[in-house]
Input
Amino acid sequence: MQTTDPLASSPPVLDVRAFLRLGGFSLDVELTLGPRFVALFGPSGCGKTTTLKVIAGLLRPERGRITLGDTCLFDAERGCCLPAERRGIGLVFQDARLFPHLSVEENLCFAMKYVPPAERRFGLEQVIEALKLQPLLTRRPRSLSGGETQRVAIGRMLLANPKILLLDEPMAALDIPTRLHLLTELRDIHERFRLPMLYVSHDLATVLNIADEVMLMRAGRIIHQGTPETVLADFVSTDLIATETVRNIIQARIERHDDRRGTTTIRSNGVTFVLPRIRRQPGQPLKLELPATEIILATVRPEQISARNILHGTVRKIMQIGNRILVRVDAGLLLTVEIVEATVQALQLTEGRDVYLIIKATAFRLLN
Amino acid sequence: MSYSPEQTLLLSLKVAFAAILINLPVGLWIGWLLARKHFRGKMLLDTLVNLPLVLPPVVTGYFLLLIFGREGPIGRWLYQAFGLALSFTWQAAALAAAVVSFPLYVRSVRVAIENVDPRLEEAARVLRATRWEVFRRLTLPLSVNGVIAGLILAFARSLGEFGATIMVAGNIPGETQTIPLAIFSLVNQPSGEHAAMILIIVSILFSYGGLALSEYMLRRWKRQSAE
Output
């Protein structure tokens, strides 16, 4: 097998330094985006969408410099400012913005004529397949559901051949399972096409288990950039996820069915779980959601218990957020467990301690 | 040359078509500027464009004569450079009709473009479309019914133009005598009333048809954008 130079195919790095005043609001961001899946999180009105627009070229900063690899997209001092259509930066809007006079297929193909065939990294067929758009092609945008609309918007943007994809999370339009499903699909596309992504989210709990890196934003500034763990650990007093449910996202494959017991065994990263019977063929991939509150922690191996799943693991991190405690446990795969403070004391939990995780078969929810 | 009803009708149609042909691109551009751009002197441009709507057409015609007449700044240039004398030709009648009907068309274009969601245009820019491509593939198709409604209205107004036309193009049968001018001349002749009546009926039909068609296009457009 031939090895290729990893640098030759690695995506370009985006470097942003931008200052902008809009009415009484001032944006002052400095960020670097490598080849990873990064979540940008912050309260509404903190400047997340503005940041994306500045990067994409829809808003012009007063000062600063934006570069993508060797290309200068904006430099206030040198007076250069590449127009949005020549930046190669993809932006999927919160409200999708499909063109109402075009069919889904025409929407998808909108940008293709501007990309020379030799440069296209995403083929129409590939995108249709990855986002499951085949049955929607002849439909009109107005007849689509919220999730379908967003999938078309993502596909349409991919076909414009962006070097980096910025995404503004749809808020009210999508219910949580649909949003989670979309997020896992994005993660797949990120890995499959090696496309760097910056995902703006209003719900830190949702992105925590999907993003490689999290940026926190407040009042026009990026106040932190790091792994999900460090973000949670360093911002102990943060109220950012005060009310949201933290969800574990598990990617797995169906191993076997047990028709006598009415259960299905799945495997994820070497760890097996038993669930109620799922109507799918063994070997098929699937994604599951497991709320952090649905996992029980024990320090001794429980016996004679109804729960079907007992995992052995080690406490990696204990994090306090407001009056909630999140425990990251490495049980072959990283799982987040939410407990109350009294439990920490009662079980004398410390980082590095061996624990058992107890999960009912019915605690999982299928995402796709 | 003597009066002929067919010729008058054909001339009127020719003048009106030429007028909206002149207006079509210019009005799209001005309407787009007024709908989408903020610039110094926007108010002035807006007022200037709408002026013929309230100015007595005769006054509009007088100004056109000043500008495009052989002694006028543009008229002199046209004559010296191309040997063109515009005054008292059917082209002058078309110019008069174009200027007078321009505000009606621009208003319609402006409203139609203002009703296209600018967020869609932003999305198209990110999808690698240049400003012109955005206009061609998004703004224009989404406002096309409003634009057509404006054109029909301007066409009907052009057919009825009298005051400015008589100033710059005169009232020459077979050359610059359009329907309204012919009606005026016929009614002033002792035996012309019967001939005038035919043209009056034609005028009413054209005006009514124009308005109805314009209204139909607008309704269709509103229905589409409400879908």
Observations:
- The mean pLDDT of chain B is 90.
- The CA atoms of residues 25 and 186 of chain B lie 36 Å apart.
- The two ends of chain B are 55 Å apart (CA to CA).
